[in-house]
Amino acid sequence: MDLRKPSGMFFTLLGFIVAATGLVNPSARAPLTDLNVNLYAGAGMLIFGGLLLWLAHRASR
Q1: Mean pLDDT score of the chain
Q2: How many C-beta atoms surround the C-beta of residue 28 within 10 A?
Q3: What is the CA radius of gyration of the chain?
Q4: Global pTM value
Q5: Residues 20, 39: contact at Cβ < 8 Å?
Q6: Fewest C-beta in 10 Å: which of 33, 42, 52, 57?
Q7: pLDDT digit string (tens) for 33-43?
Q8: Cα(24)–Cα(22) distance, rounded to whole angstroms?
Q9: Buried b vs exposed e over 33-52: b needs ≥16 C-beta within 10 Å?
Q10: DSSP class of residue 59?
């Protein structure tokens, strides 16, 4: 089994949860920065998960 598909699903789901947390609760920030770390980390995980899913789909053709 290709590990890209379950890993992509995991990162996409986790990225969605973390990004949603960042959108719903923007006041929860890291102590030493003004950035919304949850939003940026979630977006990065969503992109990475989508990339893995795309690569898994492309390899299955």
Answers
A1: 94
A2: 11
A3: 14
A4: 0.88
A5: no
A6: 33
A7: 888 999 999 99
A8: 6
A9: eeebebbebbeebbebbeeb
A10: H
